From TrEMBL:
It holds the Pfam family p450. Keywords: Heme, Iron, Metal-binding, Monooxygenase, Oxidoreductase, Signal. Belongs to the cytochrome P450 family. Gene3D superfamilies: Cytochrome P450. The lineage of its organism: Eukaryota, Viridiplantae, Streptophyta, Embryophyta, Tracheophyta. It comes from the Eukaryota. It is a single-pass membrane protein. It is found in: Membrane. This is Cytochrome P450 protein.
Length: 446
Protein backbone atom coordinates (compact mmCIF):
# COMPACT_ATOMS: atom_id res chain seq x y z
CA UNK A 1 0.00 0.00 0.00
CA UNK A 2 2.80 2.43 0.86
CA UNK A 3 4.95 2.55 -2.25
CA UNK A 4 6.84 5.74 -1.64
CA UNK A 5 8.31 5.52 1.85
CA UNK A 6 11.26 7.76 2.88
CA UNK A 7 14.82 6.37 2.61
CA UNK A 8 15.83 3.79 5.17
CA UNK A 9 19.17 2.17 6.17
CA UNK A 10 19.41 -1.66 6.18
CA UNK A 11 17.44 -3.20 9.08
CA UNK A 12 17.77 -6.40 11.14
CA UNK A 13 14.86 -8.84 11.40
CA UNK A 14 12.71 -8.18 14.51
CA UNK A 15 15.00 -5.44 15.96
CA UNK A 16 14.78 -3.24 12.88
CA UNK A 17 17.11 -0.30 13.34
CA UNK A 18 17.37 -0.46 17.12
CA UNK A 19 20.87 -1.88 16.74
CA UNK A 20 21.99 1.53 15.45
CA UNK A 21 21.03 3.37 18.61
CA UNK A 22 23.82 2.15 20.86
CA UNK A 23 25.02 5.62 21.86
CA UNK A 24 23.44 9.08 22.02
CA UNK A 25 20.46 8.79 19.61
CA UNK A 26 20.58 12.43 18.42
CA UNK A 27 24.20 11.97 17.30
CA UNK A 28 23.61 8.57 15.67
CA UNK A 29 20.59 9.93 13.82
CA UNK A 30 22.60 12.94 12.68
CA UNK A 31 25.28 10.73 11.14
CA UNK A 32 22.59 8.59 9.46
CA UNK A 33 20.86 11.64 8.02
CA UNK A 34 24.16 12.76 6.46
CA UNK A 35 23.95 9.58 4.38
CA UNK A 36 20.19 9.13 3.90
CA UNK A 37 18.94 12.72 3.99
CA UNK A 38 16.77 14.89 6.29
CA UNK A 39 13.79 12.51 6.21
CA UNK A 40 14.27 8.82 7.08
CA UNK A 41 11.99 5.94 7.83
CA UNK A 42 13.25 3.50 10.48
CA UNK A 43 11.84 0.66 12.55
CA UNK A 44 12.44 0.47 16.30
CA UNK A 45 11.39 -3.15 16.72
CA UNK A 46 7.92 -3.31 15.18
CA UNK A 47 7.38 0.45 15.54
CA UNK A 48 7.74 2.56 12.37
CA UNK A 49 9.59 5.80 13.09
CA UNK A 50 9.93 8.89 10.93
CA UNK A 51 13.09 10.91 11.59
CA UNK A 52 13.10 14.53 10.48
CA UNK A 53 16.08 16.86 10.60
CA UNK A 54 15.33 19.89 8.45
CA UNK A 55 13.28 22.97 9.38
CA UNK A 56 11.18 22.88 6.23
CA UNK A 57 10.20 19.22 6.69
CA UNK A 58 9.55 19.79 10.40
CA UNK A 59 7.32 22.66 9.36
CA UNK A 60 5.32 20.35 7.09
CA UNK A 61 4.77 18.02 10.05
CA UNK A 62 3.74 20.76 12.47
CA UNK A 63 1.70 23.07 10.26
CA UNK A 64 -0.09 21.31 7.38
CA UNK A 65 -0.07 17.93 9.19
CA UNK A 66 -0.11 19.23 12.76
CA UNK A 67 -3.38 17.58 13.80
CA UNK A 68 -2.33 14.28 12.25
CA UNK A 69 0.95 14.29 14.22
CA UNK A 70 -0.61 15.59 17.44
CA UNK A 71 -0.84 12.09 18.96
CA UNK A 72 1.74 10.54 21.28
CA UNK A 73 2.94 6.94 20.87
CA UNK A 74 1.78 4.64 23.65
CA UNK A 75 4.10 2.41 25.64
CA UNK A 76 3.97 0.27 28.76
CA UNK A 77 5.87 2.94 30.69
CA UNK A 78 3.62 5.82 29.64
CA UNK A 79 0.56 3.76 30.62
CA UNK A 80 1.85 2.94 34.09
CA UNK A 81 3.49 6.26 34.88
CA UNK A 82 1.00 8.47 33.08
CA UNK A 83 -2.30 7.39 34.68
CA UNK A 84 -3.20 5.23 31.70
CA UNK A 85 -2.01 7.93 29.29
CA UNK A 86 -4.28 10.58 30.75
CA UNK A 87 -1.51 13.02 31.67
CA UNK A 88 -1.20 15.98 29.35
CA UNK A 89 2.13 15.05 27.82
CA UNK A 90 1.31 11.37 27.23
CA UNK A 91 -2.35 11.57 26.29
CA UNK A 92 -3.48 11.04 22.70
CA UNK A 93 -4.85 14.07 20.88
CA UNK A 94 -8.58 14.57 21.43
CA UNK A 95 -10.95 15.58 24.23
CA UNK A 96 -8.67 14.05 26.91
CA UNK A 97 -5.90 16.36 25.82
CA UNK A 98 -7.87 19.47 24.80
CA UNK A 99 -9.80 20.04 27.98
CA UNK A 100 -6.86 19.70 30.45
CA UNK A 101 -4.63 21.58 28.02
CA UNK A 102 -7.04 24.52 28.00
CA UNK A 103 -7.28 24.37 31.78
CA UNK A 104 -3.53 24.31 32.40
CA UNK A 105 -2.90 26.99 29.77
CA UNK A 106 -5.35 29.36 31.45
CA UNK A 107 -4.69 28.49 35.09
CA UNK A 108 -0.91 28.24 34.99
CA UNK A 109 0.62 29.59 31.81
CA UNK A 110 -1.56 32.52 30.67
CA UNK A 111 0.02 35.99 30.97
CA UNK A 112 -2.33 36.77 33.86
CA UNK A 113 -1.37 33.58 35.72
CA UNK A 114 2.32 34.18 35.11
CA UNK A 115 1.92 37.66 36.51
CA UNK A 116 0.10 36.19 39.49
CA UNK A 117 2.97 33.75 40.20
CA UNK A 118 5.66 36.46 40.01
CA UNK A 119 5.84 36.60 43.80
CA UNK A 120 6.53 32.87 44.03
CA UNK A 121 9.46 33.05 41.60
CA UNK A 122 10.83 36.12 43.36
CA UNK A 123 10.62 34.56 46.82
CA UNK A 124 12.19 31.25 45.77
CA UNK A 125 15.00 33.06 43.94
CA UNK A 126 15.63 35.15 47.06
CA UNK A 127 15.84 31.94 49.10
CA UNK A 128 18.33 30.54 46.57
CA UNK A 129 20.54 33.59 47.13
CA UNK A 130 20.14 33.19 50.88
CA UNK A 131 21.14 29.52 50.75
CA UNK A 132 24.23 30.43 48.72
CA UNK A 133 25.14 33.14 51.21
CA UNK A 134 24.88 30.85 54.20
CA UNK A 135 28.25 30.57 55.86
CA UNK A 136 30.05 32.58 53.18
CA UNK A 137 32.27 35.42 54.28
CA UNK A 138 32.74 38.43 52.07
CA UNK A 139 35.85 37.58 50.15
CA UNK A 140 36.51 33.83 50.17
CA UNK A 141 35.61 31.70 47.14
CA UNK A 142 33.32 28.79 47.94
CA UNK A 143 32.45 25.72 45.93
CA UNK A 144 28.87 24.84 45.03
CA UNK A 145 27.16 21.98 43.22
CA UNK A 146 24.95 24.18 41.06
CA UNK A 147 22.99 21.25 39.70
CA UNK A 148 21.37 20.51 43.04
CA UNK A 149 20.77 24.19 43.91
CA UNK A 150 19.07 24.84 40.56
CA UNK A 151 17.02 21.68 40.79
CA UNK A 152 15.82 22.65 44.25
CA UNK A 153 14.91 26.15 43.05
CA UNK A 154 12.70 24.90 40.21
CA UNK A 155 11.22 22.14 42.35
CA UNK A 156 10.24 24.64 45.04
CA UNK A 157 8.74 27.08 42.53
CA UNK A 158 6.57 24.36 40.98
CA UNK A 159 5.65 22.88 44.37
CA UNK A 160 4.51 26.25 45.75
CA UNK A 161 2.53 26.98 42.56
CA UNK A 162 0.89 23.57 42.69
CA UNK A 163 0.29 23.06 46.39
CA UNK A 164 1.21 26.30 48.15
CA UNK A 165 4.10 24.73 50.07
CA UNK A 166 7.59 23.32 49.66
CA UNK A 167 8.23 19.67 50.47
CA UNK A 168 8.92 16.14 49.44
CA UNK A 169 11.51 15.54 46.75
CA UNK A 170 10.83 12.22 45.11
CA UNK A 171 10.84 12.86 41.41
CA UNK A 172 14.53 12.80 40.85
CA UNK A 173 16.47 10.05 39.13
CA UNK A 174 15.37 6.95 37.29
CA UNK A 175 13.93 4.21 39.41
CA UNK A 176 13.89 0.74 37.93
CA UNK A 177 10.55 -0.54 39.12
CA UNK A 178 7.97 1.54 37.33
CA UNK A 179 5.07 0.20 39.33
CA UNK A 180 6.74 0.99 42.66
CA UNK A 181 7.60 4.40 41.40
CA UNK A 182 4.03 4.96 40.35
CA UNK A 183 2.71 3.88 43.75
CA UNK A 184 5.04 6.25 45.57
CA UNK A 185 4.10 9.11 43.32
CA UNK A 186 0.44 8.26 43.50
CA UNK A 187 0.29 8.42 47.29
CA UNK A 188 2.21 11.69 47.28
CA UNK A 189 -0.14 13.21 44.69
CA UNK A 190 -3.28 11.86 46.38
CA UNK A 191 -1.97 13.41 49.61
CA UNK A 192 -1.74 16.83 47.93
CA UNK A 193 -5.28 16.51 46.55
CA UNK A 194 -6.72 15.35 49.91
CA UNK A 195 -4.97 18.08 51.83
CA UNK A 196 -6.26 20.79 49.50
CA UNK A 197 -9.76 19.27 49.66
CA UNK A 198 -9.73 19.35 53.49
CA UNK A 199 -8.55 22.93 53.48
CA UNK A 200 -11.21 24.05 51.02
CA UNK A 201 -13.86 22.39 53.19
CA UNK A 202 -12.45 24.08 56.27
CA UNK A 203 -11.95 27.54 54.83
CA UNK A 204 -14.70 27.65 52.23
CA UNK A 205 -15.68 31.13 53.27
CA UNK A 206 -12.14 32.45 53.74
CA UNK A 207 -11.18 35.06 51.17
CA UNK A 208 -7.44 34.28 51.40
CA UNK A 209 -8.08 30.84 49.89
CA UNK A 210 -9.94 32.48 47.02
CA UNK A 211 -7.26 35.06 46.35
CA UNK A 212 -4.15 32.87 46.50
CA UNK A 213 -5.49 29.75 44.89
CA UNK A 214 -2.94 27.05 44.20
CA UNK A 215 -3.14 24.86 41.12
CA UNK A 216 -4.56 21.94 43.17
CA UNK A 217 -7.31 24.16 44.60
CA UNK A 218 -8.12 25.37 41.10
CA UNK A 219 -8.36 21.75 39.94
CA UNK A 220 -10.73 20.91 42.79
CA UNK A 221 -12.98 23.76 41.74
CA UNK A 222 -13.08 22.38 38.20
CA UNK A 223 -13.73 18.91 39.63
CA UNK A 224 -16.78 20.23 41.48
CA UNK A 225 -18.18 21.58 38.20
CA UNK A 226 -17.40 18.45 36.12
CA UNK A 227 -16.99 15.53 38.54
CA UNK A 228 -17.46 12.78 35.91
CA UNK A 229 -14.60 13.99 33.79
CA UNK A 230 -12.20 15.49 36.33
CA UNK A 231 -11.77 12.43 38.55
CA UNK A 232 -8.93 12.29 41.09
CA UNK A 233 -6.97 10.21 38.57
CA UNK A 234 -7.12 13.01 35.98
CA UNK A 235 -6.23 15.60 38.61
CA UNK A 236 -3.21 13.61 39.74
CA UNK A 237 -2.08 13.22 36.14
CA UNK A 238 -2.21 16.97 35.65
CA UNK A 239 -0.30 17.69 38.84
CA UNK A 240 2.26 15.04 37.98
CA UNK A 241 2.81 16.67 34.60
CA UNK A 242 3.85 19.94 36.19
CA UNK A 243 6.57 18.11 38.10
CA UNK A 244 7.81 15.73 35.44
CA UNK A 245 7.77 18.06 32.44
CA UNK A 246 8.84 21.27 34.12
CA UNK A 247 11.47 20.70 36.79
CA UNK A 248 14.23 18.60 35.30
CA UNK A 249 14.13 20.43 31.95
CA UNK A 250 14.35 23.94 33.39
CA UNK A 251 17.03 23.06 35.97
CA UNK A 252 19.11 21.27 33.32
CA UNK A 253 18.88 24.18 30.90
CA UNK A 254 20.13 26.56 33.60
CA UNK A 255 23.00 24.21 34.43
CA UNK A 256 24.04 24.29 30.75
CA UNK A 257 23.82 28.11 30.73
CA UNK A 258 26.10 28.44 33.75
CA UNK A 259 28.53 25.86 32.33
CA UNK A 260 28.80 27.77 29.05
CA UNK A 261 29.19 31.12 30.80
CA UNK A 262 32.00 29.76 32.98
CA UNK A 263 33.75 28.61 29.82
CA UNK A 264 33.16 32.05 28.23
CA UNK A 265 33.99 34.60 30.94
CA UNK A 266 33.80 37.43 28.41
CA UNK A 267 30.10 36.70 27.77
CA UNK A 268 29.54 36.41 31.53
CA UNK A 269 31.09 39.84 31.96
CA UNK A 270 28.84 41.26 29.23
CA UNK A 271 25.79 39.84 30.99
CA UNK A 272 26.93 41.40 34.29
CA UNK A 273 27.46 44.77 32.61
CA UNK A 274 24.01 44.61 31.05
CA UNK A 275 22.52 44.00 34.51
CA UNK A 276 24.63 46.71 36.18
CA UNK A 277 23.68 49.25 33.52
CA UNK A 278 19.95 48.54 33.45
CA UNK A 279 18.88 47.51 36.94
CA UNK A 280 18.51 50.04 39.72
CA UNK A 281 21.59 49.79 41.91
CA UNK A 282 20.95 48.17 45.28
CA UNK A 283 17.81 46.34 44.12
CA UNK A 284 17.43 42.64 43.39
CA UNK A 285 16.49 41.80 39.80
CA UNK A 286 12.73 41.37 39.25
CA UNK A 287 10.61 39.56 36.66
CA UNK A 288 9.54 42.91 35.25
CA UNK A 289 13.21 43.86 34.60
CA UNK A 290 13.72 41.01 32.13
CA UNK A 291 12.69 42.98 28.99
CA UNK A 292 15.58 45.33 29.82
CA UNK A 293 18.05 42.44 29.55
CA UNK A 294 18.00 41.25 25.91
CA UNK A 295 21.55 39.91 26.06
CA UNK A 296 20.63 37.60 28.96
CA UNK A 297 17.81 36.26 26.79
CA UNK A 298 20.27 35.75 23.91
CA UNK A 299 22.49 33.71 26.27
CA UNK A 300 19.57 31.47 27.26
CA UNK A 301 18.52 31.02 23.61
CA UNK A 302 22.07 30.26 22.49
CA UNK A 303 22.36 27.64 25.24
CA UNK A 304 19.04 26.04 24.23
CA UNK A 305 20.31 26.00 20.64
CA UNK A 306 23.51 24.15 21.50
CA UNK A 307 22.04 21.98 24.25
CA UNK A 308 18.28 21.60 23.71
CA UNK A 309 17.25 19.62 26.78
CA UNK A 310 14.83 17.62 24.60
CA UNK A 311 17.18 16.93 21.66
CA UNK A 312 14.55 14.85 19.83
CA UNK A 313 11.61 16.83 21.31
CA UNK A 314 8.97 14.41 22.63
CA UNK A 315 7.83 11.64 20.25
CA UNK A 316 4.68 12.35 18.24
CA UNK A 317 2.54 9.77 16.47
CA UNK A 318 0.43 10.01 13.32
CA UNK A 319 -3.30 9.29 13.54
CA UNK A 320 -3.83 8.97 9.73
CA UNK A 321 -1.89 8.27 6.57
CA UNK A 322 -0.34 11.47 5.26
CA UNK A 323 2.32 12.84 2.92
CA UNK A 324 5.49 14.58 4.07
CA UNK A 325 7.99 15.89 1.53
CA UNK A 326 6.11 13.87 -1.09
CA UNK A 327 6.65 10.57 0.80
CA UNK A 328 3.89 8.29 2.11
CA UNK A 329 3.75 8.24 5.91
CA UNK A 330 1.55 5.45 7.27
CA UNK A 331 -0.86 5.94 10.17
CA UNK A 332 0.68 5.01 13.53
CA UNK A 333 4.18 6.21 12.64
CA UNK A 334 6.19 7.71 15.50
CA UNK A 335 7.75 11.05 14.62
CA UNK A 336 11.09 12.17 16.05
CA UNK A 337 12.39 15.62 15.13
CA UNK A 338 16.12 15.99 15.65
CA UNK A 339 16.14 19.52 17.06
CA UNK A 340 19.76 19.07 18.15
CA UNK A 341 20.82 18.46 14.55
CA UNK A 342 18.72 21.34 13.15
CA UNK A 343 20.27 23.66 15.77
CA UNK A 344 23.78 22.71 14.63
CA UNK A 345 23.24 22.60 10.88
CA UNK A 346 26.02 24.44 9.01
CA UNK A 347 23.60 25.49 6.28
CA UNK A 348 21.43 27.27 8.84
CA UNK A 349 23.90 28.64 11.39
CA UNK A 350 27.28 30.27 11.02
CA UNK A 351 29.94 28.40 13.04
CA UNK A 352 27.23 26.35 14.73
CA UNK A 353 29.56 24.67 17.25
CA UNK A 354 30.57 28.01 18.78
CA UNK A 355 28.77 29.68 21.68
CA UNK A 356 27.84 33.11 20.27
CA UNK A 357 24.83 34.58 22.12
CA UNK A 358 24.93 37.70 19.95
CA UNK A 359 23.69 35.73 16.95
CA UNK A 360 20.20 35.85 18.48
CA UNK A 361 20.23 39.66 18.46
CA UNK A 362 19.52 39.70 14.74
CA UNK A 363 17.10 36.80 14.52
CA UNK A 364 13.40 37.51 14.58
CA UNK A 365 10.33 35.34 14.97
CA UNK A 366 8.92 32.73 17.28
CA UNK A 367 10.64 29.67 15.89
CA UNK A 368 13.24 31.61 13.95
CA UNK A 369 11.98 30.02 10.74
CA UNK A 370 11.67 26.59 12.41
CA UNK A 371 15.44 26.41 12.82
CA UNK A 372 15.28 27.06 16.58
CA UNK A 373 12.80 24.72 18.24
CA UNK A 374 13.86 23.88 21.82
CA UNK A 375 10.22 23.92 22.97
CA UNK A 376 8.81 22.04 19.95
CA UNK A 377 6.19 23.37 17.56
CA UNK A 378 2.50 23.11 16.78
CA UNK A 379 -0.26 22.25 19.19
CA UNK A 380 1.84 19.84 21.27
CA UNK A 381 4.61 22.40 21.77
CA UNK A 382 5.68 23.09 25.35
CA UNK A 383 2.97 25.07 27.16
CA UNK A 384 5.49 25.92 29.92
CA UNK A 385 7.96 27.78 27.68
CA UNK A 386 6.90 31.25 28.88
CA UNK A 387 7.19 30.29 32.51
CA UNK A 388 10.51 28.51 31.92
CA UNK A 389 12.00 31.53 30.14
CA UNK A 390 10.90 33.86 32.95
CA UNK A 391 12.21 31.65 35.72
CA UNK A 392 15.52 31.05 33.94
CA UNK A 393 15.93 34.78 33.24
CA UNK A 394 15.19 35.71 36.82
CA UNK A 395 17.29 33.02 38.49
CA UNK A 396 20.31 33.27 36.18
CA UNK A 397 20.18 37.07 36.17
CA UNK A 398 20.09 37.09 39.98
CA UNK A 399 23.02 34.66 40.25
CA UNK A 400 25.05 36.89 37.93
CA UNK A 401 23.94 40.07 39.69
CA UNK A 402 24.75 38.90 43.23
CA UNK A 403 27.81 36.68 42.84
CA UNK A 404 31.12 36.42 41.04
CA UNK A 405 31.61 33.06 39.37
CA UNK A 406 34.72 31.10 38.42
CA UNK A 407 35.60 27.65 37.19
CA UNK A 408 37.06 25.17 39.60
CA UNK A 409 40.64 24.33 38.62
CA UNK A 410 42.47 25.39 35.49
CA UNK A 411 40.59 23.51 32.78
CA UNK A 412 37.29 24.29 31.09
CA UNK A 413 34.01 22.97 32.45
CA UNK A 414 33.53 19.51 30.95
CA UNK A 415 30.56 19.69 28.54
CA UNK A 416 30.21 15.95 27.96
CA UNK A 417 26.55 14.96 27.58
CA UNK A 418 24.45 11.98 28.62
CA UNK A 419 21.32 11.55 26.64
CA UNK A 420 18.22 9.74 27.81
CA UNK A 421 14.93 11.50 27.16
CA UNK A 422 16.75 14.69 28.10
CA UNK A 423 20.23 15.98 27.43
CA UNK A 424 22.05 16.16 30.77
CA UNK A 425 25.60 17.02 31.70
CA UNK A 426 27.64 13.89 32.34
CA UNK A 427 29.42 15.63 35.23
CA UNK A 428 27.27 17.79 37.50
CA UNK A 429 28.40 21.39 37.46
CA UNK A 430 30.53 22.49 40.38
CA UNK A 431 31.64 26.11 40.41
CA UNK A 432 33.34 28.65 42.66
CA UNK A 433 31.49 31.76 43.76
CA UNK A 434 31.67 34.69 46.13
CA UNK A 435 29.33 37.63 46.76
CA UNK A 436 29.87 40.65 44.49
CA UNK A 437 31.49 43.37 46.60
CA UNK A 438 29.09 45.98 45.16
CA UNK A 439 26.08 43.93 46.33
CA UNK A 440 27.20 43.31 49.93
CA UNK A 441 24.85 45.88 51.39
CA UNK A 442 21.83 44.41 49.69
CA UNK A 443 22.88 40.83 50.33
CA UNK A 444 23.17 41.44 54.06
CA UNK A 445 19.40 42.13 54.03
CA UNK A 446 18.30 39.15 51.91
C1 LIG B 1 13.85 24.94 29.57
C2 LIG B 1 12.72 24.39 29.92
C3 LIG B 1 11.85 23.53 29.06
C4 LIG B 1 12.10 22.96 27.84
C5 LIG B 1 13.37 23.06 26.99
C6 LIG B 1 10.91 22.23 27.44
C7 LIG B 1 10.77 21.52 26.25
C8 LIG B 1 9.64 20.81 25.90
C9 LIG B 1 9.52 20.05 24.66
C10 LIG B 1 10.59 19.93 23.59
C11 LIG B 1 8.28 19.50 24.66
C12 LIG B 1 7.69 18.59 23.58
C13 LIG B 1 7.20 19.37 22.38
C14 LIG B 1 6.74 18.46 21.28
O1 LIG B 1 6.09 17.46 21.57
O2 LIG B 1 7.01 18.73 20.12
C15 LIG B 1 7.61 19.89 25.89
C16 LIG B 1 6.33 19.51 26.25
C17 LIG B 1 5.74 19.85 27.43
N1 LIG B 1 6.25 20.69 28.41
FE1 LIG B 1 8.06 21.62 28.38
N2 LIG B 1 9.96 22.37 28.43
C18 LIG B 1 10.49 23.16 29.42
C19 LIG B 1 9.84 23.57 30.58
C20 LIG B 1 8.56 23.24 30.93
C21 LIG B 1 7.87 23.72 32.12
C22 LIG B 1 8.45 24.69 33.15
C23 LIG B 1 6.64 23.11 32.14
C24 LIG B 1 5.54 23.21 33.16
C25 LIG B 1 5.68 23.50 34.42
C26 LIG B 1 6.55 22.29 30.94
C27 LIG B 1 5.44 21.54 30.58
C28 LIG B 1 5.33 20.79 29.42
C29 LIG B 1 4.16 19.97 29.10
C30 LIG B 1 2.90 19.81 29.96
C31 LIG B 1 4.43 19.38 27.84
C32 LIG B 1 3.52 18.42 27.08
C33 LIG B 1 2.65 19.18 26.11
C34 LIG B 1 1.73 18.26 25.32
O3 LIG B 1 2.04 17.09 25.12
O4 LIG B 1 0.68 18.74 24.89
N3 LIG B 1 7.72 22.39 30.23
N4 LIG B 1 8.46 20.71 26.64
Amino acid sequence: KYKNLPPSPPALPIFGHLYLLKTAPHRVLESLSKKYGPIMYLHFGHRPVLIVSSPSIAQQCFSKNDIIFANRPESHATKILGYNNTTLGFSPYGAHWKSPHRLITIQVFSSASLLHSTGIRAEETRLLVKRLLQGSNQTAWRKVNLNSFLFQLVYDVVMVMVAGKRGWVGFRGMEKKLVNLHQRRDSFLQGLVNEARDNIGRFRSSSSVEENKTFVQELLRVQEAEPEYYTDEILKGLILQMFTAGIHTTALAMEWVMSLLLNHPHELEKARNEIDNNITHGKLLKDSDLPKLPFLRCIINETLRLYPVGPLLVPHSSSKDCKVEGFDIPRGTTLLVNAWEIHRDRKLWEEPEIFKPDRFKDIEGVFYGFRFIPFGMGRRACPGSGMAMRLMGLALGTLIQCFEWEREGHGLVDLEEVCGLTLSKAKKLEALYRPCPSMMNLLSQV
